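dumping this here before i forget
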Amino acid sequence: MIERRWHGKVPQSLSKAFLQYLIETGVSETIRLPGNLGARILRDERDDWGHVVLITFWHSLEDITTFAGKDMLKAVLYPEDEKYGLIPDRHVEHYAILEDFPPQNRT
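structure:
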């Protein structure tokens, strides 16, 4: 399994609106594609900015190209990103998930 990780930041005043926009664009698009195993959004509010991390999960690097194209290290951005004051990372990171450790019974 491959994790694709992107980061961007928006002014805190637009953070909630951007979150909804992100769900309607990047999340909705990726979770419908073959090879996608889901998505997760993280947010941290600091220094007047909402930092957002979008993590998508994929079967393989080849599956990611259906979303990102041949240059899969380049971030996929959307036409209205600027409306939310988005300062995006232009590149993404990919990580192979080697092991997954569920919580142990703690009784």
